[in-house]
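User: I'm new to structure prediction. If I give you an amino acid sequence, what do you actually give back? Let's try with this one:
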Amino acid sequence: MPDTAPETRACDAQLERAFTFLGKRWNGVLLGTLIQAPAGFAELKRTLGISDSMLSDRLAELTRAGLVERTVDPGPPVAVSYALTQSGRAILPALQALTTWARENLTEERCQGHE
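Assistant: Good question. You get back a string of structure tokens that encode the predicted 3D arrangement of the chain. For your 115 residues, that looks like this:
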């Protein structure tokens, strides 16, 4: 008698890890913002409308992951900027593909109520 149990499906572990990391609030958006050019803390805060503590947490997480580097210019005045590392820049094609897909498939009307 053949086994009729449904086949178990699983997402690739690497893809799951990528979506878990990038899906964390602000991580993907910060990477997408830094693709344009390095930026300081105040500029990122102003651009994204994010709280100091959340921005600090996310930048620290992206730095620990090796996707963003923090540079301190001793000044005066002291200036801190954040830029993508080579590993961070390597995500550019994926972010561009997601942007194109979202533009073509995720209209605002389709996303209503899914936030």
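You can read the tokens as a compact description of the fold. Here is one thing that stands out. The radius of gyration is 19 Å.
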